[in-house]
């Protein structure tokens, strides 16, 4: 039977599945580049999980891409293995692609095989001839491809479609096409300069496009579930257009947009495909022709796809034969800027109420708020990276907000300016992308002062237009998160990207930091936004860490998701604060220098006070590893090297190589000792 047990039994507990789909050179237990996304650093491996009895993939750089073979195949095909319908499809894909021969309920093996196309050449001497045999309900066809002529390329070029795009989307010029009509009578079409002929080639079909002929579109093979451009989509993205035709898809793709189309504008849009795409893209937008049929179809499909929040964009063109679709929109002189502006206008309309409310919260240095009574007033190691979260945590009055403000100052400074960023290196915002500060704790008056100090620290005369600062104290917690999500989306398109986001007080976005469900949902949403907008989100968390761990469900979730965690604590000298690394994804937190900063009366702001001595850093490392060893050996006296390594990874959330370096350090300091009777085991030293 086709089930998980059957597949695992026939694939060596899933190992053969990974070997089939991962075609690069890799070995079990050795790190390699994750094929699920554009991985730049070999930080994932295949290992055998003894608890589940399955082989799994582990990505130390992004845990969202870790799981068993079913999860992996699901990710490759845009399927969610947590969904029962998708999981059945995943099992069918593995069974088919690895030829396991497992039966699928009442379907016989013959019935399963007949749905697969049998590709063969009808005339061996014609190496370029494409002839495909399909089941009886499909149209047999023969298509003879040829090289694109200069006139062919000129036709596509008027829409901005380049040869590379044609190749990517498997578009060919056809010399001849033969098939049968619905009565079974044969017919054929031949290419000419006056009537060129192109083919959109799929796995089980070909769709013919004859732009200057009376019969413009024909099909060969099995075009059921036709979706042009689907296999060219990335795993994740911000914007996807559903268009009325293939030429529109190619026009958009040539300009960097993601797009697909179905059989025609009037064809029903498959909800199962849109459901999967909604997990991959932030926005799905219908971009149909502007004639009467196109407008009516886009409106109907938008209403049918309401649950997926599918949007509808109308082009400012007349809808005539000469100018009715997005290809014509580009042909008559419009470009990326014009389409982006139309989409931005759509967002403005959709988010009008939220942005209007948010406008009243914006800090304007030229319009100070009314004064009110005062009530209470790290060296080359990557910490905050694009697509990730950076957590800054610490107790009351340790300088977290000022530290976060110095990051913004470093981002908005002029490239040539030398400023004090409290010992942190910050990439300057050379592209003038959005820099956003959301404060959930401080009053409007206090945030105004902090924003002024940020500008002063950056040695600027005024706040740059790309920087926005908002005091969200007057909003409900639910409204705060909604305002952040929607304004980030708007500013991403308005400023062509987001350089840095700082949320000062993320605990105030949910009802309680110990609410597990809300904590997980919040961190997942922030992590998703960082990935979609390719930015770094700095999360300031007002917690006092417990050793190398953060407290509460919110702290635990950040510990798992954040690329780095910095703790700001009071030093033995009360006038100084110390920045310690609790977690660094690309390195060891205990090897990161401890930075000191304190208040400087002369400049009227916090200033960098150098690094703590190396001896103190080594002592901190030793103390932390002593506590870890106590925890590991609390309930048992012996453990293997492999188990010890795994437990250190779990306790400190570090990679395998870092855990091994910690074991070496612990042995050198005699925190742990090797049992002379069995070299595989360790025991606790005198601690």
Would you mind describing this structure in some detail?
The protein is α/β, with parallel strands linked by helices and 687 residues long. The protein is built from 21 helices and 27 strands. It has a 9-stranded mixed beta sheet, with helices on both faces. Helix 12 (336-350) runs antiparallel to helix 16 (477-494) and helix 20 packs across helix 21. The two termini are 56 Å apart.
What's the structural blueprint in terms of helices and strands?
Blueprint: H1 4-10, H2 15-21, E1 44-49, E2 54-59, E3 67-68, H3 69-76, H4 84-97, H5 109-113, E4 118-119, E5 130-133, E6 141-146, H6 150-157, H7 163-168, E7 171-180, E8 186-190, E9 198-201, E10 205-209, E11 217-221, E12 237-243, H8 246-253, E13 258-261, H9 271-280, E14 281-287, H10 292-304, E15 311-312, H11 326-331, H12 336-350, H13 352-359, E16 388-394, H14 400-412, E17 434-439, H15 444-457, E18 467-471, H16 477-494, E19 498-504, H17 516-532, E20 536-541, H18 552-561, E21 564-570, E22 576-584, E23 595-600, E24 605-611, H19 614-632, E25 639-640, H20 641-652, H21 656-668, E26 672-674, E27 681-684
Parallel strand pairs: 12-13, 12-14, 14-15, 16-20, 16-21, 17-18, 17-19, 19-20
Antiparallel strand pairs: 1-2, 2-3, 4-5, 5-6, 6-7, 7-8, 7-9, 9-10, 10-11, 21-22, 22-23, 23-24, 25-27, 26-27
Helix pairs in contact: 12-16, 14-15, 17-18, 20-21
Major β-sheet strand ordering: 18-17-19-20-16-21-22-23-24
What class, by secondary structure content? alpha/beta
Give the proportion of residues in helices.
25-40%
Secondary structure tally: strands? 27
Number of helices: 21
Q: Give a quick account of the main beta sheet: strands, pairing sense, barrel closure.
A: 9 strands, mixed
Distance N to C terminus: 56 Å
Low-confidence stretches: 106-129, 131-136, 372-377
Overall mean pLDDT = 84
Strand content: 15-25%
**What is the radius of gyration?**
30 Å
Bulk shape: globular
Oligomer: single chain
């Amino acid at each position: 039977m086709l089930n998980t047990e059957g597949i695992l039994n026939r694939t060596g507990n899933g190992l053969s599945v990974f070997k089939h789909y991962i075609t690069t050179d890799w070995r079990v237990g050795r790190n390699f580049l994750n094929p699920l996304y554009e991985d730049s650093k070999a930080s994932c491996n295949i290992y055998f999980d003894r608890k589940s009895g399955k082989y799994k993939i582990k990505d130390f750089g992004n845990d969202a891409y870790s799981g068993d073979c079913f999860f992996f195949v699901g990710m490759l095909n845009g399927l969610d293995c947590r969904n029962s319908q998708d999981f059945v499809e995943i099992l069918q894909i593995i069974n088919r692609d690895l030829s396991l021969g497992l039966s699928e309920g009442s379907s016989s093996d013959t019935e399963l095989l007949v749905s697969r196309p049998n590709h063969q050449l009808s005339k061996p001497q014609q190496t370029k001839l494409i002839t495909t045999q399909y089941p009886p309900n499909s149209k047999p066809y023969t298509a003879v491809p040829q090289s694109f002529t200069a006139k062919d390329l000129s036709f596509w070029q008027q829409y901005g479609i380049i040869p590379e795009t044609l190749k990517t989307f498997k578009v060919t010029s056809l010399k001849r096409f033969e098939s049968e009509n619905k009565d079974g009578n044969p017919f054929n079409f031949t290419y000419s300069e006056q009537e060129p002929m192109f083919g959109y080639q799929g796995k089980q079909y070909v769709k013919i496009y004859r732009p200057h002929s009376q019969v413009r579109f024909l099909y060969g093979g099995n075009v059921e579930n036709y979706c042009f451009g689907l296999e060219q989509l990335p795993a994740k993205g911000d914007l996807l257009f559903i268009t009325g035709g293939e030429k529109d898809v190619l026009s958009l793709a040539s300009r960097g947009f993601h797009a697909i189309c179905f059989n025609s504008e009037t064809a029903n849009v498959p909800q199962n495909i849109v459901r999967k795409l909604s997990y991959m893209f932030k926005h799905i937008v219908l971009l149909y022709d502007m004639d009467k049929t196109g407008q009516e179809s886009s409106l109907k499909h938008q209403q049918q796809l309401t649950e997926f929040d599918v949007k509808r964009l109308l082009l400012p063109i007349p809808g005539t034969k000469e100018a009715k679709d997005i290809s014509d929109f580009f042909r008559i002189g419009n470009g990326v800027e014009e389409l982006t502006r139309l989409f931005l206008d759509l967002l403005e309309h959709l988010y009008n109420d939220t942005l209007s409310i948010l406008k009243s919260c914006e800090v304007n240095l030229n319009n100070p708020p009314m004064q009110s009574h005062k009530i209470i007033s790290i060296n080359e190691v990557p910490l905050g990276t694009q697509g990730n979260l950076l957590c800054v945590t610490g107790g009351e009055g340790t300088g977290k907000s000022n530290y976060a403000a110095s990051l913004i100052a470093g981002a908005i400074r002029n490239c040539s300016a030398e400023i004090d960023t409290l010992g942190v290196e910050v990439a300057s915002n050379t592209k003038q992308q959005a820099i956003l500060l959301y404060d959930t704790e401080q009053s409007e008056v206090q945030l105004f002062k902090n924003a002024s100090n940020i500008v002063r620290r950056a040695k600027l005369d005024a706040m740059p237009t790309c920087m926005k600062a908002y005091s969200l104290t007057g909003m409900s917690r639910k409204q705060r998160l909604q305002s952040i999500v929607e304004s980030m989306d708007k500013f991403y398109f308005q400023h062509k990207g987001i350089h840095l986001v700082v949320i000062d007080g993320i605990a105030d976005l949910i009802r309680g930091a110990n609410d597990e469900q809300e904590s997980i949902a919040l961190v997942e949403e922030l992590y998703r936004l960082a990935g979609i907008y390719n930015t770094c989100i700095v999360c300031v968390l007002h917690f006092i860490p417990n050793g190398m761990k953060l407290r509460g469900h919110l702290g635990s979730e950040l510990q798992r998701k954040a690329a780095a965690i910095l703790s700001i604590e009071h030093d033995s000298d009360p006038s100084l604060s110390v920045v310690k690394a609790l977690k660094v994804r690309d390195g060891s937190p205990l090897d990161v220098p401890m930075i000191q900063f304190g208040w400087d009366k002369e400049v009227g702001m916090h200033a960098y006070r150098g690094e703590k001595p190396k001896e103190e850093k080594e002592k901190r490392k030793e103390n932390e590893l002593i506590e870890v060893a106590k925890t590991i050996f609390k309930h048992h006296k012996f453990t293997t090297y492999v188990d010890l390594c795994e437990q250190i990874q779990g306790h400190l959330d570090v990679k395998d190589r870092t855990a091994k370096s910690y074991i070496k350090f612990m042995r050198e300091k005699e925190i742990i000792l090797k049992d002379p009777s069995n070299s595989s085991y360790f025991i606790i030293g005198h601690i």
